[in-house]
UniProtKB/TrEMBL annotation:
Pfam families: Acid_phosphat_B (PF03767). It comes from the Bacteria. Residues 1-31 form the signal peptide. The keyword Transmembrane does not apply. This is HAD superfamily, subfamily IIIB (Acid phosphatase). Keywords: Signal. It comes from Nocardioides scoriae.
Amino acid sequence: MPSRHPAVRLLLLALVGLLLLPLAATAPASAASLPSKKKWVSDTVAAASGSRTYLQQRLDALEEGDDPLAITLDIDNTSLASHYDPGKPVVAVLKLATYARNHGVKVFFNTARPEGKVAGAVASLEKAGFPVDGICGRRSGESLAEGKQRCRAEFADQGYRIAVNVGNRSTDFTGGGYDRAYRLPNYGNLLV
């Protein structure tokens, strides 16, 4: 049965469309809004640029009695690709970790993953070729930033100076406890 008031019907449809428009504008961005893998790799290489040179400068400046150096690495979309190539190493970070190990620098991982799940992470990291000298996960009830800060403090309490800290989210860097940060791309927190 056709509507007696097609103009009213059209007006109601237009109003519903206008009401739904803000919802569409605030919807989370989809994977389609992330750049290509090629762009991500390029951006990652650019972000990590200079990290090995800086680490070597820190090694060259060490004096007798100084704390030995360490680097701390986040895992997801920092050391291991989680979005673009799940489980595979992020090559620029693997090169840094390998360089560190070959020059006597400890390689520690600082992850937001729960403490109870770090054993699986170690296996994944080693399978991807990473040297693992230690790993620290988030405790129950800790925020991401609190967990990262606590883990860096624990590594420092073991007698190491964290020369380089690599991550891809602001929570990877909150609170300091390292000499230099290298922030990999996360495209507005779309890479989680």
